[in-house]
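Following up on my earlier thread - several people asked me to post the actual chain instead of describing it. Fair enough. Here it is, all 579 residues.
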Amino acid sequence: MNKSDRTNANSTGVETQNVHSAAHLKFEGSAKTANGQAQSRLVLAMILMSAVYAIISARLIFLGFQDPSQPSLLRVADAAITATRPDLIDRNGITLATDINTASLYAEPNRINDPDEALELLITVLPDLDQEEIHRKLASKAGFVWLKRELTPAQQSRIFSLGIPGIGFKAETRRYYPNGETTSHVVGLVNIDNVGIAGFEKYIDDQGLADLRSAGFGSTKVLEPVSLSIDLRVQHIVRDELEKALERYQAIAAGGVILDVNTGEVAAMVSLPDFDPNNPIGAMKKENLNRVSAGLFEMGSTFKSFTTAMALDGGTARMDDKFDATKPFRIAGFTVKDFYAKRRWLSLPEVFIYSSNIGTVQMADKVGIEAHDEFLHRMGLLDKMQSFELPEVAKPQEPKKWRKINSVTISYGHGMTTTPLQTASAAAALLNGGRLIPPTLLLRNEDDANKLAKQVVSKRTSELMRYLYRLNVEKGSGRRSEVKGYRVGGKTGTAEKVVNGKYVSNKLFNVFLAGFPMDDPKYVVMVFIDEPKPEEGKKGATAGLNSAPIVGRIVRRAAPLLGVKPKFMDLEGPLFASY
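Reply from S.P.:
Thanks for posting it. Predicted structure:
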């Protein structure tokens, strides 16, 4: 090849390279535009995976240099149980859960010469041991076995003095709950390995603590306390009043929640029966379910709050509208009656305070089936709560396909189930200007709450609902919840329970859904009582007779602690609302 040919070849090669380079640059630019975000996520994932494998490799190398015959290695295998958990504290800094030091008994059977003698000595201190099982463990020649977890200091001292070869103690941490049952459903509990299995304790592990432990990195470093939104003082008041109510009304269960309407913070949450997390025998029994967030119920006439708000917000009803309640409402062979029939035309406020099923059904009928379904989803009543911290959260149940009859019964609180917490949260939106804010057990300020809030009804609708709530306490079924100076407003709900597929009139689920103060709402208070009996000297057991007065007693005691000052006006009566 002559010089000219080589020159041409080189020139052609350069041109070809430039063409490829240009094509490559062009491709790279378009790919970056189209896939930049995906590539960033891939790089981040690769970095995280590399970090995890590096930590595990370092751990394996460390373990490889240890002497397997030493007890220290055996302790490493269970490092997770020596790891500390963060203290849980209430919003005022009061301890709800903390770690305390304890010790557990283990054996190294391959170092025990006489299992029979060792067992005889051990049962002098621990007579409750399963002798057959312990003997099998001691004679197994294994490297490590547990014999007894969480010894008392006295037991540890006495066993130590026996001087049994191959027997040792492992320092552990044990979870302690200073307030016992009072906050059991909120804080939850841990198992014997100090791993969260329920309530907020499980939430902590689900946030990453469990991942570290599973990799064998139990840390004894003191962790920063986690502040909950709960006010222990208010929590105690709610539980105290509910305990008294269980006895007074001979009910099978009860529950209550207090929500900050402007932040979504849970100030108190109680479900009875409950349990002692320090001695959690039976904690997982069905009857000890957290009914506030994991219980599904037909909420009865409290749902008329949402039907009324739906009609007002959608413009299909006005406050001065009249509804024909002269006779029962019939649809598809189904008859809707009023419990306290007035047998006359009722204004919208009268439909609300007299809890008229007939008038409420007519409101839902004007809205329509699809719009009714959409509104309840918008209010967060038919979807499972995704962001609430507790793992004990139930998914509401609704008809697979909404028909006319479904819209009719759901309008007054039958034919679908939801949780009390979701009902309280939706009510908070009706009172705070129309903003649905996810409930939380963590501290949250109003600025952060506003970022999460979703406008679900207009401010005008919220103003009208505050008026109706207050009117119902002044003149309707909520009269027994009145607390002078705090302007309580609310809606009762008395729902017959379904037994063997039929509604039973003598088994009730009663609710009072309230807020205060109605001129500037701060808190929603919701109380329910399951299967109450008539109080002595009274004929009925409706929500107006039991749930409403429970709320009144709670507000009277808790409002000052929540920073709500009473306001006494010369003119008492429902708040003014023009319409």
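Residues 504 and 557 are 35 Å apart (CA to CA). That should answer part of your original question.
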